[in-house]
Amino acid sequence: MKRSAPMKRTPFKAKPPEAGQQPGKKPVKCKAPGCQNRFVRRSMTHKACGPDCAAVLGRLANEKAAARAALEDRRQTRAQLEDLKTVPQLKKEAQAAFNRWVRLRDAGRPCISCGAPPPDLTKLHAGRDAGHYRSTGSADHLRFHEDNCHAQCVKCNQWGAGMAVDYRLGLIARIGAGRVEALECNNGSTKWTREQLRQVRDTYRLKARALEKGAANDPSMQEAA
Q1: Are the C-beta atoms of 115 and 128 separated by less than 8 Å?
Q2: Three-class SS of residue 130?
Q3: Alpha helix (H) ranges present in the chain?
Q4: Which residues pair with 38 in a beta bridge?
Q5: Residue 103 contacts by C-beta under 8 Å, 6 or more apart in sequence?
Q6: Amino acid 199: pLDDT
Q7: DSSP 3-state assignment of 181?
Q8: Out of 18-22, 41-45, 77-81, which region has the weakest mean confidence (pLDDT)?
Q9: Spatial separation of the C-alpha atoms in residues 122 and 107, rounded to whole Å
Q10: Is the torsion defined by CA of 86, 200, 128, 137 positive or negative?
């Protein structure tokens, strides 16, 4: 049997580099905004095709650095101001965050004391107070207790002395007699610290945002709006 002749392979011919291209390196796109030029980098930090584009990139880098420095300065200023806040200031901020959450939590519920419906479900805070069953003056340790505070008409809370009797009846219907009696028997005391008040403030700010996000994604609320 006659053997076939071995195949001849064509020798490899390297493609000559394009004009201005160094052997083994590929052109890259210029990083300057709007520039479409391509060039061969001399090093990893070489990002511009020429002096004009390099000047543009330098200016942008300086602007970013200035923006970062300004942001860090604002952060430090806020931190310094936070450190200077007194207990009364922090208590006011914590109470505002807690009250806002209470109004959002009870947005679709009637007034805890008179049973009147919310003025307008599309305006979650309209005409509503966060009314305490046991007042913050007589039971400061319960000012941030969720069972002790509910959405209440401005009229009932501010002009009706809290409507204590009606509030109690509404509270029993809502959370049960056992929890109401636990509130009435809770005669502890708390000396609020800065750390506690910051924790209350930050916690209820987050909880309020979560409720607002849920309301924004609720189809019934979107249809009402």
Answers
A1: no
A2: strand
A3: 51-84, 87-105, 154, 164-175, 177-185, 194-216, 219-224
A4: 29
A5: 124, 125, 128, 129, 130, 151
A6: 97
A7: helix
A8: 18-22
A9: 9
A10: negative
Length of the chain: 225
Indicate the pairing of strand 149-153 with strand 128-132. antiparallel
Give, for 131, the enclosing helix (H) or strand (E).
strand 128-132
Evaluated on CA atoms 208, 185, 137, 113, the torsion sign reads: positive
CB 148 within 8 A of CB 142: yes
How far apart CA 106 and CA 146 sit, in angstroms, is 11
> Cα 109–113–117 angle (5° rounding)?
35
Average pLDDT over residues 54-62: 90
Mean predicted confidence (pLDDT) in 170-198: 95
Residue in 90, 78, 49 with CA at minimum distance from that of residue 201: 90
If phi > 0 it is left, if psi is from -120 to 50 it is alpha, else beta; for residue 24 that is: left
Phi then psi for 63, rounded to 5 degrees? Answer: -65, -40
Strand partners, 150: 131
- The residues that bridge with 131 in the sheet, in sequence order, are 150
The pLDDT, as a whole number, for residue 161 is: 64
Q: Span 116-125, mean pLDDT?
A: 65
Percent of the chain whose pLDDT exceeds 70: 80
Angle at 138 between CA 134 and CA 139, to 5 degrees: 60
Cβ atoms 158, 129 nearer than 8 A? yes
Contact 39, 49 (CB under 8 A): yes
Token pair, residue 39, equals: 């060039």
pTM value?
Answer: 0.66
